[in-house]
Automatic annotation (TrEMBL):
Keywords: Hydrolase. InterPro entries: Metallo-B-lactamas (IPR001279), RibonucZ/Hydroxyglut_hydro (IPR036866), UPF0173 (IPR022877), UPF0173_UPF0282_UlaG_hydrolase (IPR050114). The keyword Repeat does not apply. It comes from Haloplanus rallus. SUPFAM superfamilies: Metallo-hydrolase/oxidoreductase. The keyword Iron does not apply. This is UPF0173 metal-dependent hydrolase EI982_06980. It holds the Pfam family Lactamase_B_3. Belongs to the UPF0173 family. GO terms for molecular function: hydrolase activity. It comes from the Archaea. Residues 7-199 form the Metallo-beta-lactamase domain.
Length: 244
């Protein structure tokens, strides 16, 4: 599995021969790319409807858009998306070589269009290369994109022990989401081996010293490796899975 961070909450994920783009928003200071520079993904996953997560969804008309039914309906109406998968919390859908499980995020989800529009419940995704089951598969690998969220006990009680992500991208910019301290607790609760900070240094309210997140993770006693990526940088996990 290859993970590429394009700044903010925008991730390009490759699972075998399937590519997934999460929360496309390229008007951020961590990327030098325009949407046209990005290889066309097979799927676009949307965590919620705020502009800094859906701004560039229309740039990928051939991709299948995945999200809540309310959000995929809006994308179809406003951007003419032909192929959509409306799903909801707790569900898993097969997207090519990937299995995508939706879990809730603690956030808001009103859309500031010409009228106030609800995009349903905010979400995060666990993207894996095998279907999630209660039978532990040592050869499986899963990546958790938490979306915009505060710290929530579901990370400790459900996502970590049952969905078993190996790596997580967590918002740490504070103000609108978790900050470094709560993000570090999330990494510990999830019991992941690898953690990637996101959703920081995009706008003045979420400018932070990201090294604080590294120190906070260490302070929890977590063994997770913290990977602070530069914009447009990739990290690859190869079978048998270990550090990429």
């Amino acid at each position: 599995m290859e993970l590429t961070w394009h700044g903010h909450s925008t991730w390009y994920v490759t699972v075998d021969d399937t590519s997934l783009l999460i929360d496309p928003f390229f008007d951020n200071p961590h990327t030098s790319l325009d949407p046209a520079d990005v290889p066309a993904p097979d799927y676009v996953l949307l965590t919620h409807g705020h502009a800094d997560h859906v701004a560039d969804v229309g740039a990928f008309p051939d991709a299948t858009v995945v999200g809540t039914p309310e959000l995929t309906g809006w994308v179809a109406d406003e951007h003419g998306a032909g192929d959509t998968i409306g799903m909801n919390l707790g569900g898993t859908v097969e997207c090519g070589d990937a299995y995508v499980t939706m879990h809730r995020a603690d956030h808001t989800n009103g859309m500031m269009t010409d009228y106030e529009y609800s995009a349903g419940t905010p979400a995060g995704y666990v993207v894996g290369d095998t279907e999630p089951t209660q039978e532990t598969d040592e050869d499986a690998f899963a990546f958790y994109h938490a979306g915009d969220t505060g710290l929530m006990t579901e990370m400790r009680d459900v996502i970590g022990p049952f969905l078993e992500p190996d790596a997580a991208a967590l918002p740490v910019g504070d103000h609108f989401t978790m900050g470094p301290a709560q993000g570090a607790i999330a990494a510990d609760w999830l019991d992941v081996d690898h953690v990637f900070p996101m959703h920081y240094d995009t706008f003045p309210p979420i400018e932070i010293d990201v090294s604080r997140f590294e120190r906070e993770v260490a302070a929890t006693g977590s063994d997770a490796d913290v990977h602070v990526l530069d914009g447009d940088e990739s990290h690859t996990f190869e079978r048998p899975y270990g550090d990429g």
